[in-house]
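sorry for the late reply, my laptop died twice this morning and i had to redo everyting from scratch. anyway the thing you sent over, i finally got around to it. pasting the sequence first so we're on the same page, its 676 residues, then the predicted structure underneath. double check i copied it right bc i was rushing
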Amino acid sequence: MPTASVERRVAELRQKIEKANYEYYILDQPSIADEAYDALLRELTELEAKHPELVTPESPTQRVGTAPSARFAAVEHAAPMLSLANAFDETELRAFDQRVRRLLGRDEVGYVCELKIDGLAINLTYVDGKFTQGATRGDGLVGEDVSANLRTIRSIPLTLREPMKGRVDIRGEVYLPKASFEATNKERLERGEPAFANPRNAAAGAVRQLDPKATAKRNLAMWAYSAAGLDVGSQSELLTRLKALGLRVNPSWRNAATLDEVIAFIGEWKDKRHDLEYGTDGVVVKVDKVADQEKLGYVARNPRWAIAFKFPAEQATTTVEDILVYVGRMGTLTPVAALAPVIVGGTTVRRATLHNLDEIRRLDVRKGDRVVIQRAGDVIPEVVRVETDAREQGTAQPEFEMPERCPVCSGVVVHPEGEVAYYCSNPDCPAKSGQRVGHFVSRGGMDVEGVGEALITQLMERGLVKDPADLFFVTKEQLLELDRFAEKSATNIYERIQAARRRPLARVLLALGIRHVGETTADDLARWIALKLPQDADMGTVFDLLRASSVDELQAVEGIGAVVAESIHDYFARPEEQAFLDKLVRAGIQPLMPAQRQVTGGPFAGKTVVFTGNLEHRSRDEAEALVRSLGGKPAGSVSAKTDLLVAGPGAGSKLDKAKSLGVKVVDEETFEGMLR
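ok and here's the structure:
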């Protein structure tokens, strides 16, 4: 039993350490030396070790990380984490300003300009001033619980600096400083793993580490920029309030009375951003007054009162030394320009995608040409145009042609009628296998960190892996026999592979590499499967259901059209895929079924809503997205299960059928009123 003096000392140490954290990570004004800080933390750690009953979740010692997690639980956000519409030039920005002034009915608005951070959006929940949960944005409605990882980030306070009752949700961006990004990529390359394409990917990978101790090593930081549950009158007041509560707020924000002042702010940071120690790819412009924000409202899942201005991609001129062809996991042949090295946006670029043959013809790119390249979204290098005037008379190279044989396996290249892409027809093409394994273990798929291109190549060259399922049968002893593998590295990779046997069903479906099935479709398909199977269904039961599903049944799944349904059906009917799927079942892959989203209390919660006729206030897609975000289910046809039909001008057979079935019918104005 700790004495009163021990309890007082523990409280005193925590107060001093949190004050030091605030000064160092929030204010950037440390008042004590590192050695003194370490001594305080060491004393607290020792006292808590002797008296574990004094340990609390918000203690500074709890930032080191808990035991590794096998998965991340789903978290339904208290309020949707909305995305922002983008503006790419001054014309689009002025159109936004005109729209805001028209809807508010006055010319004087007032904006706040904030740098758009190149990181991962997160939500922090505080109850009675204490950090209780942290989640990723996810799809805006449901994210992943990464609380244990976020606790390791020292710029996230575990206790707010002002006492407050009730719940507050803080939104912000977790990012990786440029220096840490470069160090992380250096380490990954030394381990034979692919480098992260940009700081955002690196930050997302760090936040979603299964082991919080690994997150703690990445030197992540956070900027806060919004909140739900704080009583403020403006965005500028909110930023000031967040800082007072101990949250780290980016200092480079500014009030702007007019759009011209907004444009001046953007122009100022277009060049200055390169001097920052973190990445920014634009400026977020927000209407300042909360009352104006509420009046402007939302369209689909974008606020009408905010917009993200994206900085233009940086460009450079260089020479095309060759045009190469890469083969992807689906056998798609992609032409890529091999360039004379050139620096674009601080990064040396040696390759730029040419997308496909149609794009090459449109640009008229040839070997030896001088070309202008840019990093699209400051990430992917691409050729913008050819400087044809630089071609010397009579020396232009012939037009590029796609090869008739696969450059990897010499298989026949096919070009399906009506498609842009060319494909290798050889099902055993090594490029397909390697790329397929890489896709399978990627972050969006089975999320096996450390299984990069170099490791996959070694495993395939030694005959240990022919398809992704083989990974689960690789032993630690076999890993130890590979180049540059010692006991610790082999153990880490082996344990990560084993942990990947339990993954959300949507990730497993995405990892399969079914043509046309991306993240959204995989999620739609997983939710449909979860309605038909028990929560503890194994992978074999899932595959049996999909094999037995017709194209029409798949097309009836919300979000899946005819082309995608045909692709899914063909995949599960293909004989050459059966051995791979059966092997996954034998590997013991256990899919984690998605929880069905439930929104209670809203006007559409649990209801099926159909739209017909012309909508005047918003597009059909926007209206359906709003219904979905409020817990309803949009449908394309009227049936006995339909709860509501929204009928605009020109409504036809759907309206007649709804009346015959006794379905409630409302006009668009009534629907808008229900939203309010």
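DSSP finds 24 helices and 26 strands in the chain.
thats about all i looked at so far, will dig more tmrw
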